[in-house]
Amino acid sequence: MGTIIVMTSGKGGVGKTTSSAAFATGLASRGFKTVVIDFDVGLRNLDLVMGCERRVVFDFINVINGEAKLHQALIKDKRVENLHILPTSQTRDKDALTKEGVERVLDELKKEFDYIVCDSPAGIERGALMALYFADHAIIVTNPEVSSVRDSDRILGVLNSKSRRAERGEEPVTQQLLLTRYDPERVEKGEMLKVDDVLEILAIDLLGVIPESQAVLRASNIGMPVILDIQSNAGQAYGDAVGRFLGEEIEHRFTKVEKKGLFSRFLRRSA
Amino acid sequence: MSIFSFFRSAPKPSAVQAKERLQIVMAHERIGRTGPDYLPVLQQELLSVIAKYIDIDQNKVEVKLDRGGDCSTLEVNIELPIPENGSKDAKPSVLKASVSRPANSGKKEPEPAKPSSALVNGGLKKRS
Ligand SMILES: Nc1ncnc2c1ncn2[C@@H]1O[C@H](COP(=O)(O)OP(=O)(O)OP(=O)(O)O)[C@@H](O)[C@H]1O
Ligand SMILES: [Mg+2]
Predict the structure, then answer these.
(1) Do B26 and A201 make contact, defined as CB atoms within 8 angstroms?
(2) How far apart are the C-alpha atoms of B109 and A172, rounded to whole Å?
(3) What is the A219 CA–ligand 1 centroid distance (Å)?
(4) What's this model's pTM, rounded to 2 decimal places?
(5) Most buried residue, A107, A156, A158, B95, by most Cβ within 10 Å?
(6) Tens digit of each residue's pLDDT (9 = 90 or more) over A21-49
């Protein structure tokens, strides 16, 4: 039976889609049969980040409404074996996500896939609720910034009260923090919240820290999940996070200002 | 570091302020989430009790809420009407009621707020 992971945040634009694409790709690269679903009905974006936008015929909502079969809507990734994408509709709105419909599709996917990654829309309304409702694990995507941290706390509250596990009084949804767009230089200058500050405030486990990186935009420009850019800090950091998710012990990287050579350090001092 | 900044007393780094602000606001928001936030209800009930005895002018009611780091304080100031047979230069009285509630520490899963732990101070004061 497959495991459902939700990538959620409350606040918009913090990196949920980037992280969903990276995570699903990382899990599939390690041999797990993985599907990533776009829950952001009306604002289809995951297809672009995954580079499959020209192959979308049917979508998640078509499947919910019985207008298409699940296997007709699933898009097989061209780069990574075991990876599938379930895009969303651009023309419908979030009301199309009925609890029964979503459950039916997820139940069918669970039979076939090891991991089902749900890319949540921003907010705490219907779309975000449906994305997290059936989750086993939640990855809280947060930027080191006041409004993002506060919204993450709200979404943690929602997970603890409105998820199916909470409603049924089952084992709670596990919650791990993915701190993205982290800039160690600004942290060092006292201009950005530290990893430890955010951890202390949210009081959940740390899954990973993804540095602010130009590789993310570069990767989305060409429709390639950034985790496949193994030269980049961000790609490596996502790879580490996937490893940690699977239970490996991996030290956190890219959280400190990189050590420069003696010469450039001298330049920085006198700047 | 420039020679000038050496003489200035360093202001708190903005990240430190961010953390402090978050800890305070979230401590309060978590109380509201785990149990009903009774302060707004309390405010309405206080006013309705007082209205039973005194004809209060809603425009003369001042309500202040300060969500602080250690506790929040609800302060209700009601200007009481001048008695009809009172002397012309009598000043209006002000009824002040303030309620404080300790904030939680900002950790996960706070205890639900217990109204019984609230401290209620009431008093009649002449406006100076
Ligand atoms: N580590 C990073 N470094 C630099 N830019 C990043 C990083 N992570 C995300 N971004 C950029 O932030 C923007 C928002 O990312 P993304 O679309 O993944 O966020 P989102 O949470 O899915 O947004 P929405 O709430 O609208 O769905 C994108 O332009 C992306 O390229
Ligand atoms: Mg998104």
Answers:
(1) yes
(2) 13
(3) 11
(4) 0.80
(5) A156
(6) 999 999 999 999 999 999 999 999 999 99
Question: What is the rounded distance in angstroms from the CA atom of residue A156 to the CA atom of residue B34?
Answer: 12
ipTM, 2 decimals? 0.80
pLDDT tens, residue by residue, B96-114:
777 776 665 444 444 444 3
Which residues lie across from B95 on neighbouring strands? B78, B124
For residue B48 the two structure tokens come to: 């309705």
A187 contacts in chain B (CB < 8 Å): 15
Atom 29 of ligand 1 has which residue's CA nearest to it? Answer: A217
Judge contact between B99 and B39, C-beta under 8 A: yes
Whether chain B has a CB inside 8 Å of the CB on A157: the answer is yes
